[in-house]
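Section 5: illustrative case.
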């Protein structure tokens, strides 16, 4: 329950992720010079526009937090016993890094859908399943193609 609440709470900052996505998108490179311009472009469409892509963000955050809290203990049990503060820090770093890389890879297709949804400004709000289906078809209905670029994420 704590993982679900944490993931949902993180989604409150969706507008920050939305603006970051716009600034990183090559289609908007010439349109926005900075964060202020991106925020202003969304402003005229209302508050709802800032939260475009909320559903995939909720899926990603909630599921990754559930996995993180569920797997942290078992992974830590397989690491050497920490007898000092510094070895405890190393163990936590290894565990967090391993889980972070794993979650980033596992939920990469959700981020692909989220990015596609958030690159649009104005217009119809498309559902997560509809955008996923579009991407699935564009990538030749192959699971491996949904992970194209994922290696950059976990590196």
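Designed sequence:
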């Amino acid at each position: 329950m704590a993982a679900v609440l944490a993931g949902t709470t993180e989604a409150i900052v969706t507008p920050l992720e939305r603006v970051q996505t716009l600034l990183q998108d090559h289609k908007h490179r010439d349109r926005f010079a900075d964060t202020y311009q991106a925020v202003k472009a969304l402003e005229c469409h209302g508050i709802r526009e800032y939260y475009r892509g909320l559903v995939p963000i909720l899926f990603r955050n909630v599921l990754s937090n559930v996995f993180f809290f569920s797997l942290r203990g078992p992974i830590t049990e397989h690491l050497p016993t920490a007898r000092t503060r510094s070895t405890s820090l190393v163990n936590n770093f290894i565990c967090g890094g391993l889980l972070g890389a794993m979650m980033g890879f596992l939920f990469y297709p959700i981020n692909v859908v989220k990015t596609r949804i958030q690159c649009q400004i104005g217009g119809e709000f498309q559902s997560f399943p509809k955008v996923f289906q579009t991407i699935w078809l564009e990538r030749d209905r192959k699971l491996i193609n949904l992970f194209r670029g994922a290696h950059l994420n976990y590196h």
